[in-house]
Structures
1.
Amino acid sequence: MSQEHSKRIQELLALLEQDRQAMLFTGKRLFGEPNAPMFGLDLLAYGAIKRNLSTTTAIAQMVVAWNMVCARSLLRVHIDTALRFSAAWFVDQPHDFALKVVRGHRIDKLIDRTGSRLTDARLVEIHVAEYPWLPKVYESLSGYIHFSGAHVFDSVSELRDEDMSISFEISATDYKFPEFSWGEILDCTREATGILSKYLDGYIFTKGLSSEQLAEIRSAANATEQEIRSNADTRHS
């Protein structure tokens, strides 16, 4: 007989649905006015929104079904969408970058403004100051993408020290995990959606600026980046 999640998990699921509706609204804002020009980053944004909506829906379904293995696998994919979309903000030509991705170039083979490859590790490093939970969560979830020891551990239902025995449970449901584990899945899902939403909102705002306003913002951003690099060089010297 299927069990029901706690009230807290039900509340988080409701918030997840609100996030999904907000992301749909963001997609509508991205389209802009009829006959509005389309840019390379628009294409990447549409793909990110679509993937976000799909994984958000699927993660909610897996939590309701008590399927932790698939929920964790999907969460890794969900975070990946936010991180890889954000990569466009760390290259010299975002629209060219987006078109390369659309044409089949691998993001982890492309480079950022510092000459570093945009690997998953690099993207996590870029965001760690703002999202300190990312490294640990991303690393632990990576084991769920390919068959690994993580799946073996999930099949263990009990370890008994007294007789050195082990029990396994072969099931599609994972009732053994505490409320905290399910809450962590949903919290991280919402956090990752928040990362993506931040960049989407910034892009939509930027699209509404004049070329003069955009040039002024870029100039200020470049000056800030140069100052940060200069300070970093001073600390290392």
Note: Residues 7-157+164-210 form one domain.
2.
Amino acid sequence: MQITTVEVVPVELRLRLPYRTARHSEIDCVTAVFVRIETRQGDTAWGCTALDPLTTAERLEEVTRICRACADRARDLSPLNTEYALGELAQIAVDVPSALCAFDLAFHDLLGLAAKLPLYRLLGGYRNRIQTSVTISIAPVKETVKLSCNRARQGFRIFKIKGGIDPNEDVYRVRAVQEALPHCTLRLDADQGYTVQQALDVARALEGHLEMLEQPTPADDLDALRQVTKHSPVPVLADESVVTPASALEIAAQRAADGLSIKLATCGGLRCARQVDTIARVARMTTMVSCINEPALLSAAGLSFALSSPNVHYGDLDGHLDLIGDPTVPGFLLEEGWLIATDVPGLGCTVDL
């Protein structure tokens, strides 16, 4: 299989609902970069990335420049020698993991097309579906309940409630949602907003009500995260603290969290995600496959990874739901909050660009 064409296409997409977090008052658009690869054998593969203002300071101009440099190098690489090819591209995309992610997805898509297998089977095929949470952005209590009930009517049964500004308000919001939707599962993502004591106060107040507490303390303060994890009655997951396999190894070594959240766009794609998951698995920590606001193509890759590993206990792959004009035509299904793979080879998506 020989690559003949590599095209890099930046796209800006708007959100139907503005997205509010502890660190950003409002996010109403998403910047994505798509990569299209054609081969002499007639295959067309797609990859993409998205820029996350919550996690990185990457700029579109820099990501696009690195993607185009990767495109020049990719024409001389064999897409079936995936590990070697991505190792070569990683040297170009140093400190720009989102650019590497786009090519990582495209090369894995090509691998699935060549094998005539859906990627989740090629990576391990542990299952063919996973239940996903849906994110509820920061809002007053009544609006939080309304947003949650609207999502419940769409079939979702797991809610990740954003918090981190006012710990007491977060407790009220979680309790209000549980009262309105008593049979649903709730998660709280503090987005690094708490002190150790605030995190423990929230965890104790919501013991028995939360499935997990995500990234309660600042990402660069592993000692604070470790203290919360040690004393919290609620499982604690590291999110923004997990960027590279090295950071995952440090968290595991310190037992600073009960589990690790992995986002493909911020860690560099499937190759890196699998390394992080292996670290978590050996350390007997759970894995959550998560997302940013991202095209469905990126969600499809996250789903392929989530379905491939028995260590993935949590799915959080809703980042494509509110995008307007996403050029991705997904091959996976969404039914009553469950993401279900199909047997279309590769990532199973087409892109209309």
Note: The longest strand covers residues 3-19.
